Amino acid sequence: MLGAATLRPQWKAAIDLKWIRDNKDLVAANIRNRNSTANLELVLELYEDFCSLQKEVERMRGERNIVANKMKGRLDPSVRQALVEEGKNLKEALAALEEDLVVLTDKLQLEAQCIPNITHPDVPTGGEENSVVRHMVGNPPEFKFTAKDHIQLGKELDLFDFDSAAEVSGAKFYYLKNEAVLLEMALINWAISEVSSRGFTPLITPEIVRSSVVEKCGFQPRGDNTQVYSIEDSNQCLIGTAEIPVGGIHMDSIIPDSSLPLKYVAYSHCFRTEAGAAGSATRGLYRVHQFSKVEMFVFCRPNESNLYHEELVKIEEDLFASLGHWIWLQVTWVHQPIASLMWRRGCLAWKDMESASNCTDYQSRRLGIRYRPAPSDPSMAAPKKGKGGASSSPTQFVHTLNATACAVPRMIICLLENFQQEDGSVIIPEKLRPFMGGLCTISPKLKS
């Protein structure tokens, strides 16, 4: 019987423990570099115990089968009785070993699921100070007047109401007003239109998901430093990104090879605790508890994920560049594979704008998303008798990728601060004007 204190995993990732053992040094270095608390030595110790115990269970099962086969046919009663006793003893011993194996398997699974995904080899170790710039997009805006930050612009143009939102909901909430409402809707429709034209299927996702799905996507739904809002007395959470519900859309399924790649562009509201976020650079719309975002997501074959990662980064760059040369973007290797940083005129600093990540098979092993490769030999396409033909080829885990198409509040910051004019107005980029009823400029309101 499992002890009362024994923890059982609520879900099980298909972890390649042999690979972890064979690449111990790489995994250990990755754990250190990611400041993870995963206990690799314990995982390897438990894995060794698991392998030994599994062999012993298989050996004893073999002995039990041998005894069962010996009892077939006519036997002397004394011989049969001896075999019955031997079989009974083997059954009891095997049951105890199998119970131990269940307990050990659960413990190994829980510990191994704490090991983080291996980072891309080009990602630098350390914080933002160690980031490596790939290239720059656009040019820095040059103003012949004293530029304002988005908070001051929003106040003068009557676009935001932080004070009322703080009274109604608390700090880091906001009301959008007037043209800011049109601007948010325009950014969402523009991003979805642009990305879907490149072969991505548009989605609007659920914004409440099961905690297990959040965990399988690599996020921690509970804990002191979590960024996730959990719903009390339930197994559900508010999403912090559409990556989570889109990642789960093909959970526990086998995708036909002919369907890959699957590309989605998803709109959702996002909710984050923003624990520890403070300082002048995070004021206003930069770090808030609720916001809108358009997210790209790809399921693909493993040998193609690097190509799709570059495609996602290129789409992000194209989206920015299409809004005008005044947007200055720094594309950087930092933390995750790619982060795009916008130049914040209001605080004269580079700040995170969007990211693009290749999660390889980390999420798909946890979410149970596989595909069945098409046979490389065309002659194998026809089913062979008793073999199942093409359908018998072994399944593999897909690779998953995600990237930001438009984090709306941060894009609003970028547009206000970089497209402001000396008279206090803000020019609407041409690409967005059709989505704003042809509006070209946000102008100061006439005072009565």
Automatic annotation (TrEMBL):
The record marks T404 as: Important for serine binding. One of its GO terms (molecular function) is serine-tRNA ligase activity. L-serine binds at T241, R272, E295, N402. Residues 80-107 form a coiled coil. It holds the Pfam family Seryl_tRNA_N. Its EC number is 6.1.1.11. InterPro entries: aa-tRNA-synt_IIb (IPR002314), aa-tRNA-synth_II (IPR006195), aa-tRNA-synth_II/BPL/LPL (IPR045864), Ser-tRNA-ligase_type_1 (IPR002317), Ser-tRNA-synth_1_N (IPR015866), SerRS_1_N_sf (IPR042103), SerRS_core (IPR033729), tRNA-bd_arm (IPR010978). Residues 149-429 form the Aminoacyl-transfer RNA synthetases class-II family profile domain. GO terms for cellular component: cytoplasm. Residues 370-394 are annotated as: Disordered. One of its GO terms (biological process) is seryl-tRNA aminoacylation. Keywords: Aminoacyl-tRNA synthetase, ATP-binding, Coiled coil, Ligase, Nucleotide-binding, Protein biosynthesis. ATP binds at R272, T273, E274, V288, H289, Q290, F291. This is serine--tRNA ligase. It comes from Dendrobium catenatum. The lineage of its organism: Eukaryota, Viridiplantae, Streptophyta, Embryophyta, Tracheophyta.
